[in-house]
Amino acid sequence: MNTIAAKASTASIDFLPLHGTDYVEFYVGNAKQAAHFYKTAFGFQSLAYAGPETGVKDRASYAVRQHKLTFVFTTPLSSQNPMADHIYQHGDGVKMLALMVDDATDAWEQTTQRGAISYMMPTHLQDEDGELVMSGIHTYGDTVHLFIERENYKGVFMPGYRKWESHYNPTDTGLLYVDHCVGNVGWNQMNKWVKFYEEVMGFRNILSFDDKDISTEYSALMSKVMSNGNGYVKFPINEPAEGKKKSQVEEYLEFYNGEGCQHVALATDNIVATVTALQNRGIEFLKVPSTYYDDLLSRVGAIEEDLEPLKELGILVDRDDEGYLLQIFSKPVEDRPTLFFEIIQRKGAKSFGKGNFKALFEALEREQDSRGNL
Questions:
Q1: Cβ neighbours of residue 299 under 8 Å, at least 6 residues apart?
Q2: How far, in whole angstroms, is CA 3 from its chain's centroid?
Q3: Which of 28, 99, 105, 258 could form an S-S bond across to 34 if both were Cys, CB 3.0 to 4.6 Å?
Q4: Are strands 93-100 and 144-149 parallel, antiparallel or unpaired?
Q5: Of residues 368 and 360, which shows the higher confidence score?
Q6: Pick from 222, 139, 217, 235: nearest CA to 187
């Protein structure tokens, strides 16, 4: 099977209109320290805090923001808490992928009627700044999709939180919004979750990659890219494929102890400046051999960028029918080789860097080999 662009959905209406990612919430062992790390290393700013001081007794949560990108870090305040079990099993990782909707009640009703397992019934949260409605459903592994309706809420983040003001406010790094979030699922589970997103959430499969597209001498994987109707929300789904050695998906599943969000792709409009700033703050990125750039322009055609900074930083380039993209992948940001980040700048391209797969996966394998996990 070759890479294919799937046919558009025949549905005449979008029963689950989404306006993008509202926030990404991580369950972590120490939320205060995690928030400080993401401020320092990624350039987020303090936004809001929830905890015992705000009437929330079972957890502490710190929300940080950079442009339209919001992360929340949550830690349980007791070991007798399901969040503590989640962290024990998975380590620090993504728990909630929260999506912006006009009507959180209708989103919950539409998806649960189509077979989703409810995580949270429609819940109305109120304070002096108005009302926010949220609901949620389960997806792969222990990951959850929340539906957030905030038309009637004017507060800093949501009820239960107070504004978090800090004397420490490092400059941002040019990260703008979530481009896509990639999920890793188990053997022969990809099509199951493709069907879930199609039937439960009204997504469509816009691209498919098989083990001929995403493979090296040692390992392979399969991937399908799911997108909602307007293209604001994209969830590629990966599963392992047979290879001589252990693939990056298998390594993730082993160390995360189950299915989960492998990486979050963060958009920028100046990838050279963003990656330079991130590297200067200690973020480590995968490196491809310098020979990758020897025939780059013959492979992708003319680009507006100076090639030397791309080569120096290790930024990859690929082209599709609508333009080109620039991308780079961090090393895992946890001690477990699980969660990492992609930095991406799109110059018209709507694809996901198929031309870079071989170089990228060989770089990943070098890291796996250094950990003894290949």
A1: 355
A2: 22
A3: 28
A4: parallel
A5: 368
A6: 222
Domains and CATH numbers, the chain: 21-163 (3.10.180.10), 178-371 (3.10.180.10)
Angle at 47 between CA 87 and CA 67, to 5 degrees: 100
Average pLDDT, the chain: 91
Residues 179-224: tens digit of each pLDDT: 999 999 999 999 999 999 999 999 999 988 765 665 566 556 788 9
HEC states along the chain? CCCECCCCCCCCCCCCCCCCEEEEEEECCCHHHHHHHHHHHHCCEEEEEECHHHCCCCEEEEEEEECCEEEEEEEECCCCCHHHHHHHHHCCEEEEEEEECCCHHHHHHHHHHCCCCEEEEEEEEEECCEEEEEEEEECCCCCEEEEEECCCECCCCCCCCEECCCCCCCCCCCCCCEEEEEEECCCCCHHHHHHHHHHHHCCEEEEEECCCCCECCCCEEEEEEEECCCCCCEEEEEEEECCCCCCHHHHHHHHHCCCEEEEEEEECCCHHHHHHHHHHCCCCECCCCHHHHCCHHHHHCCCCCCHHHHHHHCCEEEEECCEEEEEEEECCCCCCCCCEEEEEEEEECCCCCHHHHHHHHHHHHHHHHHHCCC
Query: Per the structure block, which two tokens stand in for 34?
Result: 């995690």
Task: Give 270-284 pLDDT, tens digit per residue.
Answer: 999 999 999 999 999
Answer whether residue 162 shows pLDDT above 50: yes
CA distances, 273 to each of 36, 187, 309, 355 (Å): 22, 39, 10, 23
pLDDT more than 70, % of the chain? 90
**Tens digits of residue pLDDT in 110-128:** 999 999 999 999 999 999 9
Higher pLDDT, 365 or 50: 50
